[in-house]
Design goal:
The chain has 221 residues and is mainly alpha-helical. The protein contains 13 helices and four strands. The chain has helices at residues 9-17, 31-47, 53-60, 69-73, 79-89, 95-98, 108-118, 122-131, 148-151, 168-177, 195-200, 203-208, 211-219, and strands at residues 5-6, 164-165, 186-188, 191-193. A two-stranded antiparallel ribbon has the order 1-2. A two-stranded antiparallel sheet has the order 3-4. A hairpin with a 2-residue loop joins strand 3 (186-188) and strand 4. It is globular, with a radius of gyration of 17 Å.
Length: 221
């Protein structure tokens, strides 16, 4: 039986909204192409008045942080504003900032490791780390430059990846034993954060009931 996962309602809704683009190995194109397809999908949903489009806008356009779907849909955002929302979802300041990485090709092995982590697959994660030891300290090509340990925090990364496996503490221990650095920082929310700081301030691990044990695993020597 596969590990159980805690998937927040908004995360599931966004995944469903963009389902065609987030199929297996969706990262097999340059960053610019991926962000373009994401923006096209969100723009189409927004123009169609789909209330699910408001979720990403609320999360990544500060002016709408407290707004309901109706207000957001009536705001008549431009295509450029939607592109900025998508860019921020992937850790960039805005669409112009994302242009610097447009030609970068994601590391398929790293992205596979992220998906393996979020699926709660302990055995495969350990195998990947044994086969490619540098994965323990590798960083995402996207704007936030997350490590695998940062992804474990379900905070500050792309919304579709804010998923919490219920065996998260065991997964974190696997990463730590492979050499993942708990002191590594990423620039999100206008500051620098270590994995434990993201984990401790995320609602998702708390709601999944694994917060304290996961933090203990992360902080253990």
């Amino acid at each position: 039986m596969p590990p159980s996962l805690y998937i927040p309602v908004d995360v599931r809704a966004v995944h469903d909204l963009h389902r065609p683009m987030f199929l297996a190995n969706w990262w097999e194109e340059p960053v610019g192409g991926l962000l373009k397809r994401h923006a096209e999908s969100l723009w189409a949903a927004y123009r169609a008045g789909n209330p699910l489009s408001a979720i990403e806008i609320r999360n990544h356009a500060p002016v709408f942080a407290q707004s309901g779907a109706g207000h957001i849909l009536e705001a008549e955002l431009s295509r450029g504003q939607i592109e900025d929302v998508v860019a921020r979802n992937w850790g960039y300041r805005d669409g112009a900032d994302a242009e610097e990485d447009a030609a970068v090709m994601p590391n398929a092995v790293f992205e596979d490791a992220v998906e393996t982590l979020l699926a709660g697959n302990e055995r495969r994660l350990a195998e990947l780390l044994e086969q490619v030891p540098e994965l323990a300290t590798a960083r995402s090509p996207f704007g936030h430059r997350f490590t695998l340990l940062h992804y474990a925090g379900s905070n500050g990364c792309e919304l579709i990846r804010q998923i919490v496996p219920h065996n998260l503490p065991a997964l974190i221990r696997i990463l730590r034993e492979a050499g993942a650095n708990p002191e590594a920082t990423v620039a999100v929310y206008g500051a620098e954060y270590r994995p434990a700081e993201l984990l401790a301030t995320s609602a998702h691990p708390r709601d999944a009931g694994v917060m304290e044990e996961a933090l203990a695993a992360l902080r253990s020597a």
